[in-house]
Amino acid sequence: xxxxxxxxxxxxxxxxxxxxxxxxxxxxxxxxxxxxxxxxxxxxxxxxxxxxxxxxxxxxxxxxxxxxxxxxxxxxxxxxxxxxxxxxxxxxxxxxxxxxxxxxxxxxxxxxxxxxxxxxxxxxxxxxxxxxxxxxxxxxxxxxxxxxxxxxxxxxxxx
Length: 159
Description:
Elements (H helix, E strand, L loop, with lengths): L9 H8 L6 H24 L3 H12 L5 H8 L3 H13 L3 E5 L7 E5 L1 H22 L4 H18 L3
Antiparallel strand pairs: 1-2
Helix pairs in contact: 2-6, 3-6, 4-5
C-alpha cells in the first residue's frame, strides 16, 4: 500500500520561506551589532567601556537626571543590562545616583565631571564613525534612509 503524501502545514510552508539572511529584523540586528562593535572597539580600550555603558553615558549626556527605567526606555535596552551598566558606571565614578526627593525608591542618574569628560571625548569618535558609514551613500540616499528608518520605527510600534 503506497503511503499518501502529506500536504505541508501552513507553519512548515512559512518556515521554508523564512531565509534568515533576508529577514529584515535579522539584517537590521546584524547591521546594528557590526556598527556598535566597530565603534566600541575604538573606545573600549581607551575608556574601558562596554556598549551598554557608552549608551547610558550618551543618553545622560543629552538628558541628565533620568532614572534607570527611563534610560532603559530611551535606549530600548534590557532593564537588567541597564542596571549592571549603571552599577559599573557608578563604581567607576562616571555616573552618580541620588535618591529622588519625591520617591526615595527611585534613583536619579546623572554624569559626574569624569562622565562628562568621557562623553565629550567619545562623542566625536562615534560621530566620525557614523560619517564614515554614511559616506557610502549620496545626499539623496541619506535622506531616503532617514525617512525609511523613521517610517519603520513608527511601524514597529504597532507590531
